[in-house]
Protein 1
Amino acid sequence: MPLALPAGGIFFSLMIPDPAGPQRWQPLAQRSQLQTRVFAVLGRTYRHPVRRIEREFVVIDAPDWVNVVAHTADDRLVLVRQFRYGMDGFSLEVPGGIVEPGEDPVAAGVRELQEETGYAGTSARLLGSVRPNPAIQANHCHLVLVEGVTLAHAQAWDPDEEIEVTTPTVAEALALAHSGQIVHALALNALMLFEPVWRARRAGI
Amino acid sequence: MPLALPAGGIFFSLMIPDPAGPQRWQPLAQRSQLQTRVFAVLGRTYRHPVRRIEREFVVIDAPDWVNVVAHTADDRLVLVRQFRYGMDGFSLEVPGGIVEPGEDPVAAGVRELQEETGYAGTSARLLGSVRPNPAIQANHCHLVLVEGVTLAHAQAWDPDEEIEVTTPTVAEALALAHSGQIVHALALNALMLFEPVWRARRAGI
């Protein structure tokens, strides 16, 4: 059936499940299956309210993350290139990292940008927040825009970090995103939420 | 330093690391830390070629995934809404699932679309492939475009699936993506790679 867009109808329908539609499974219990330095793996037992079955589903529980679009006054973006052991190769990305417990996501973005690249800006705001994988992962990734950035500090890498900073023009960075040369899903989210903001500004809207 | 775009320079620089830039860590060994139904957690020991240190990094090893933009002849997209235990709530997404061993990613997308929604199309192709999280995750997510889709089959859900199908116009779906009502990072990647394809087609390019 077609989805009606206006008047907040979508949001309402997402929050209040249709009794005939997908049901909200009820969490009953959870246990830790593994604790690592960067995430925990939980086994969470759910009960289906209608089917009356119970299932243990696996959930990756990590802190929230932040990814940062850092925009210079001369219309460049600050990108980072580093070795990523998950993909066992090099990845070109936007700066980012882990939101500390209790830390504001925008403040976390400003901090990570400065630590990884030495860049600091004149203003910062949230572009949006996504779920890296709502099927198996509990956390959010916040996407932050920092504007008017300049190289203001020394980098302060974590012990195992080694980061090359590049500053393509916005048009070049977006071309990299659209042509498959930036492959990090969350970095792409950040750049693609930034794109309409940037186009509107250029059009003087 | 600014990044030079033309003449394939970026691709080359990503493949052949600058000796003065980030180094490629060398994998030495790996062990299984946890095996679940949907992923394994590996401990992979790496050695830094210059610093001569060894570290065990944690890698989530999952099969490749596929997400599908399914486009009807009357300019609608097929979206699915389901309960996602990772985020413990409802999520509006594009259809998708797991690529079977040896399966072609485009064929996997066509199959998952049909199983989850009953829709089948007249043509299918790869929009792009991303890394869900290159920092800690080894797999790819392939983003597939299926065009000319119509409701052609019965749904064939996996045992624990329960899926509501909606068919907003493309403009409505993209508005949902840009306004934070679609939060699944990989679904957003698929929609945002589709957007310029769709705009070009509408402009008759």
Protein 2
Amino acid sequence: MNISAPVFTLTLIAHSLTQAAEPLLSWNDTAPKKEIISFVEKVTKKESPDFVPIPERIATFDHDGCLWAEQPMYFQALFAFDRIKALAPQHPEWKDKEPYASVLKGDMKKALAGGEKALLDIVMATHGGMTTEEFDKIATDWIKTAKHPTTGKLYSEMVYQPMLELLDYLRKNGFKTFIVSGGGIDFMRPWVEEVYGIPPEQVVGSSIKTEFKMRDGKPVIVRLPKMNFINDKEGKPIGIQSHIGRRPIASFGNSDGDLQMHQWTQAGNGARFSLYVHHTDADREWAYDRDSHIGKLDKGLVEAKEKGWTIVDMKKDWNKVFSFQD
Amino acid sequence: MNISAPVFTLTLIAHSLTQAAEPLLSWNDTAPKKEIISFVEKVTKKESPDFVPIPERIATFDHDGCLWAEQPMYFQALFAFDRIKALAPQHPEWKDKEPYASVLKGDMKKALAGGEKALLDIVMATHGGMTTEEFDKIATDWIKTAKHPTTGKLYSEMVYQPMLELLDYLRKNGFKTFIVSGGGIDFMRPWVEEVYGIPPEQVVGSSIKTEFKMRDGKPVIVRLPKMNFINDKEGKPIGIQSHIGRRPIASFGNSDGDLQMHQWTQAGNGARFSLYVHHTDADREWAYDRDSHIGKLDKGLVEAKEKGWTIVDMKKDWNKVFSFQD
């Protein structure tokens, strides 16, 4: 066979164009990919009985364990620990006071032995007491420089390549993509637009109380060390209603904290799609579900199987997890 | 002079195309229109030193008295009074209990004599106790049928034609338009998309608490008779930060309730634009400002003049107020 140079070049170009147009490249041709594409075609084809107009194509994504990793600990907790260390010189009393003393010694297990109260103390000491602009800068600086404890990668590299492709695929099909996370709304907003293409106004999360004030004649919003709203479990449908005001037609999660979001999504009229990412890949990522303290998936898995929601087996269904892997 | 038919037709077509492309037709060629256009050109021209990228072109609009009228009383209060009448058969005790008894007798002045407490009682009795879906339907039915007490028009016709043109003009220039109102977020959301082209997820407002529940195996969100957040005065920057997470570059209001929103907008870097609609037209609309209980504009007017914000004199600057007027 003899292919002339121009034809060969054209063939190559055509091939790379096809590749670029091919959605969900990091997804294997197993059930989840087929189910995603079939749902999207069903709601976007004008002649389909399940057609959904563009403004109603709302898709909500959990963050920790769904868009980026969450092991060995929620990354925002690691951020808080780093902040405790950075703030310690201004708080000499922390040396002898739990949970701060243990954080400063690097003993995270002991630091968190105090349960929710200890975690709340750490969050309030690190997330409150500054203006919104100051906190923006703190979160941005951290995400640009801090490294994951076991992979040594930037946290913004610890995002799932298949999920980035999925966000992109949905947006190309007229969906508006939202993050709906138990994590802090203001911790995510400064950098998620660059990483996921999701603007701040499409981020829903947990929040602390704030106060509007004049400071030297300039208005500021001060972050108070007091919880305002926890956007998890029953909180997710509430957060969705409060921020979006429309019911999603598609929802994506990985833990029991996302179950009520899936239930709320599924209870609407017309075609619906809910997906659980199941962490099954101890080699490329982590493997955990019903017995994990982080991202526990138990009741959600039972209900997903019962109701026929899509379940992604990371190991089987993704040919790539992180973009830095081969 | 002799113009041939085809040339004449072409001239007419060209003229009507120019007209269609001409923005802000209901605005006279006075200062406010010029200031709006000059600001928009400044932030949208690539080569301008004040150029703002599209995702950051956030514009926030107050609702009552800014996009639609608010006299003789906030329209949502009139909605609440109508609901008291509709619900009265289920509440025989209201006949002898204030403020309900006065509402049922049509004596609004006496009904509101109890001040904020009375108003809150009325709001809670009419806005709480049902699911979000049920309330959606109640608000939608009302907006489709209820008539304004003095003009006899539908409330959705009591919107300012110049402001509709302004919303449209900003969106055509890459702005994302938000409502930021002291009114109830869930009262506005079911119908503002149709009336203003603003989707539910771009509405910020006051809210009551809600609860996620399973009812006969179906998830519902129940509206509780308890205030959650008041999106007025200092609440507006807080609501903006919580819902949008970016500072607006342009803000539009008509009362002292919008002052902090303007201050917050103005305190950002780069070009900024803030506008007050001043109700000066007793013939085509209403004339009121510093002594009004509804939409009081006093401190805001002083600060607007001091800081050089744009002030619309309805009578002088708008050649049309409502689309149903000549």
